[in-house]
Amino acid sequence: LYAMEAIDRVPRLIGCQASGAAPYVAAMDTKAARLEWVRDAHSAALSIAEAIGGEHALHALRASGGSAWASTEIEIADAARWLAARGIGAELSSAAAVAACL
Length: 102
Known about the structure:
By secondary structure, the chain is mostly helical. The protein is built from five helices and two strands.
């Protein structure tokens, strides 16, 4: 959108991960040049526990001046329940972003 001039600045990106599998959080916290992949992820939010994002996502977080946040399994489950109480059925990986905001 920025390249198309539809917006005037790149938004600040925030990565949301489960604390049992948070390589972006670790890389941002330590200012590591590369991601350290989590081989044995410990999270029910499996689609965000897998090593699929890559270095390009880490670069995008940094280039936007963003950050990465981790939520516990309990916080993620609580966020899913919070959403469900409002009529939104979200699986745990999706609820992680809400957990980071609550």
